[in-house]
Amino acid sequence: MIKNRVAYTIWLSATAVLYIFGNDAGTRVIFYASLIIPFIFICIAGILARYVKITLHAPEKRTCGEAVRVYIATSRTLGLLGHIQYHVLCENIFTGERWENINEFTPAHCGIHVFTLPQPKMTDIFCLSAWKMPPPVSKRTLILPKRHPVSIEMDANKDPGEAFAIREYMAGDPLKSIHWKLSSKTNTLLVREADMPELQNVLVLVEATSPQGQTLPNPNEVHNMAEKAYSIAHALLMEGIPQTLGRLNATTYESHEICDTEGLDTAFTQLLSNTIEPTYAAPAYEEICAQYAHVIHITAVPR
């Protein structure tokens, strides 16, 4: 904008010189046009800045590796009446990463990405003036980690085939749980349901803390922790094993019961909305694990 103002000043000075020394109709028209036309567009830009509203758009959910495009929309068509100057700020709440001037990118790490548009401005077509505009509401995009193949092996002494109940098939039940022989006799799809509480008493514990005296884990370590937890939790669901996803913070513990993939994504939305904290709550860890028969403990840094 400074370059435009300098160029306009030089142009206006040149037309003024021509007007003074030429003193004819042509130089007068050029000089007054150089004064009036920019002034009109500056006033138009000032009016538009008061009445044009900006909306920020970003996708609600993506997976790592998928492109994310962020753009703005205006409540009125501007055409050649003005331009909007803006830059998008992005913060990954989970990893603590921040970026500026970002419009389209492919996220390398999972987490809740918050997009903001601080201090947008309306400029005239000559970029001689800039009028502040109210910033739009921020947008949040959930970037889920990729799932990787995971082999789940339960304790042989706690075989889910030792005891089970029979019930009618429900949408979402794994096909491997269908009791085909009994279903053929009754002409109704029936499934086996584990009848052993300890097999359903599985905790996937994500330790979202950093031991005292150690530096916070880097974004790659934090992302890998979430990716492992997500893959394991999904593999358990595919085996027909419901679970609890727990998150251990420095001073708090929160958990979510997961029975289907929709519940898994909902739980991970909460998990990825928090940042790693630089303390470790050992007593809480022991108390929590004592309540479960099977505990899968995942950390960003080794204890």
Characterise this structure:
With 303 residues, the chain is of the alpha+beta class. The protein is 31% helix and 25% strand. The strands form six sheets. It has a five-stranded mixed sheet, with helices on one face. It has a four-stranded mixed sheet with strand order 17-16-15-18, with helices on both faces. Helix 1 packs antiparallel against helix 2. The longest helix is centred in the N-terminal third of the chain and has 27 residues, at 25-51.
**What series of H and E elements makes up the topology?**
HHEEEEEEEEEEEEEHEEHEEHHE
Gap between N and C termini? 54 Å
Number of strands: 18
Mean pLDDT: 82
- Strand order of the main beta sheet, please? 2-12-9-6-7
- Based on CA atoms alone, the radius of gyration comes out at 30 Å
User: Structural class of the secondary elements?
Assistant: alpha+beta
Q: What percent strand?
A: 25-35%
Q: What low-confidence regions span 5 or more consecutive residues with pLDDT below 50?
A: 158-163, 196-200
How can the largest sheet be summarized?
5 strands, mixed
Count of individual helical segments: 6
Oligomer: single chain
Helix coverage percent of residues?
A: 25-40%
**Which descriptor suits the 3D outline?**
elongated
